[in-house]
Specification:
With 273 residues, this protein is mainly α. Helix content is 61%, strand content 10%. The strands form two sheets. Strands 1-2-3 form a three-stranded parallel β-sheet, sandwiched between helices.
Amino acid sequence: IYPTMVQGEEAAIQIAQAIGCANSRNECDVLIVGRGGGSLEDLWCFNNEILARTIAASQIPIISAVGHEIDVTIADFVADMRAPTPSAAAELVSRDNSHKDQVITSHQHKLASAMRHYLSQHKQTNASLLHRLEKQHPRHQLQRQSQQLDDLDMRLQRGMERYLSSRAQKIERQQHKLQLHSPIKRLNEQASSLQRLEQKLLDAMDRKLLNTRHQLALAAEKLDTVSPLATLKRGYSITQNQQGDVITKASQTKTGDTLVTRLSDGEIRSTVH
């Protein structure tokens, strides 16, 4: 508010000075220059040339609101806008914003609905990824490898038992033939043949055992390569928060969090700064 006289000989100059003051301060978006109704003489200061030029030169938009609707002054023609009354001018610069509240409320509802849909989709995606990750967990791979190793060990034992049983039966048959052919020479030949067969059997058993041990060592080495402990021994580490969640990104931490880093020979606790 820039108080000034609005009628009388000095009114025009004071109103022009008030407009100049408002422009120099530049503290408002629009000026309302006006007064209530009156006689032609009461409103005559708004026909002053100096005031008219001041209104026209103002950098701040001016609404002329002089007198009643039927009153017309030069100020009405040079102002940026004319209002029939001061109260009408007030309505022009402070319109009802209820429609904006409705638009904002509508946008809020749409935003909330979009966020619910977005979160629902990401929740389903996260659940699917979690399920796939669980299926590929090293624990399941270790269980499968362990089961395969048990199966191989059992098959090896059964194979060895069948092999030894077959060889034992063959030896028994040879011994029976030896008994049927009692001459000393034949007996010696059979004894020598038996010794050779026994040696072949032992050699074959040694080769079989050596091959089986080698296969077992290869299987154990493959199992060790997929073990998380072997990964830690190669220089890698696993970092978790206090809840046990594995940290894969820096964005999962905040200042003050306590982290547990697991190495091949122990753990290190650290605080995020």
